[in-house]
Design brief:
By secondary structure, this protein is mainly α. It has two domains: 60 residues, no CATH class; 72 residues, no CATH class. The protein has seven helices and no strands. α2 packs across α3 and α4 packs antiparallel against α7.
Length: 139
């Protein structure tokens, strides 16, 4: 309970607005997992899986938590008036030339990946249904 109340919130502060790359998400997940292992006093010799350590601590997987946070923020922004600054900022596309290489990951594409779970953009209007949809288990 202490971890969920005092440690995880600063670790995930404003993460719903980040465009998380796989590297950054991996760093957050490994930091989270190391803290669970340290708190539960599991040693490498014990041969206990990460999934078992999380189950013992009673905390949901970080990937699922991040998905819920992003979709909750997306629903909040989409329910706002179309003339609001926040709504306009989300729809803004900056025209510029990208450097060579793989395209940068952008927040809207991350949210669309999260919505592949049979969730569509028009479902955010009903707040109660939206919360039920984004909180259902996926793994």
């Amino acid at each position: 309970m202490f971890y969920c109340a005092c440690v995880r919130p600063p670790l995930l502060y404003a993460v719903e607005t980040w465009e998380l790359t796989e590297r950054l998400e991996g760093l957050l997940a490994s930091c989270d997992q190391r803290m669970f292992i340290y708190m539960s006093r599991v040693r490498w010799k014990d041969k206990i899986t990460n999934k078992e350590v999380r189950r013992r601590c009673g905390v949901e997987n970080l990937e699922i938590r991040l998905r819920k946070m992003r979709l909750r923020w997306f629903g909040h922004v989409k329910r706002r008036d179309e003339n609001s600054k926040l709504w306009r900022a989300m729809e803004l596309e900056v025209e510029s030339k990208r450097p060579l290489g793989r395209p940068k990951k952008i927040w809207s594409k991350v949210v669309k990946e999260d919505m592949k779970l049979n969730i569509t953009e028009d479902m955010e209007e009903d707040r109660k249904t939206w919360r039920q949809l984004i909180s259902r288990p996926t793994n």
